[in-house]
Amino acid sequence: MKEEWKLKGCIDQPAPEGVDLAAEIRRMCKEKDAVVMAHYYTDGAVQDVADFIGDSLALARKAAETEAKVIVMCGVHFMAETCSLLCPDKTVLCPDLNAGCSLADSCRAEDLAEFKRGHEGYTVVSYVNTTAAVKALTDVVVTSGNAERIIRRLPEDAKIIFGPDRHLGDYVNAVTGRNMLLWQGGCHVHGRFSAGAVRRLKAARPDAVVMAHLECSADVLALADVKGSTAVMLKHAEEHPDRAYIVATEAGILHEMRKRCPSTEFIPVPPEGGGACNVCEYMKLNTLLKVYNTLKYGWPVVSVPDDIARQAVKPIKRMLELS
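Structure (tokenized):
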């Protein structure tokens, strides 16, 4: 059975009939000294059972601070790797090893290493949405929540390679006046948003405030009243709950937005090509049943080889210091 699980990358054993998955998850967390962390893009039921929810920066900070012996990271694979890098003495579990990231996949370590060899003297700034092997080739990691701030703290004459998200890099170049060399990667979810869809929603609801994630393209960001990370969008909505919002980011964030602002209207921007809202199929691989089985069986475990971990943790720690 264990070999079958390994091939699948997750444990899909059915739970005993009548079991309350959420209650059992909470019971096992106490029994095993475990915490469940979930990204805002995961399913609402997973967010509701988590000890902590947040964006990539908040999750990294929380992982670095937790005293629990076990971390169940409900997000995508690179987030579990980040937890392992920051907490080498803890067991890090990932409910489904198939929860990858199109943005991380757009920058392979061997390609970045070759690119660096052709650009000596450049500082490499990598988005957190990268593998540990890419982070090991990086000078400082950033998130959408701190990228602008960290770039401003680097010397003005620094030659910078920024990757892999070209849209976030474009935005940071525009607001800081830098001329960073951009890796041409992107998020497949945010890449499905179009300026046309935003304009159509705005025409129907001219009173609504447009919020867009920095992984969106420049033409989408040009239409946004609020530009930033998921944390920035949440904070703005909480501070101005009397407005309606058109939201251009992965639809999982709407769950927390509606919990915090129950009387506020949030309107998701649909993806280009059809559909009511834009979702990340990788994030949605995290389910209550998989979290339950992960805690029950203590697998899948995510770890990083020591030689990579020694280098990869350095730019993450530098990020936490600079932000």
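The chain has 16 helices and twelve strands. The CA atoms of residues 28 and 295 lie 7 Å apart.
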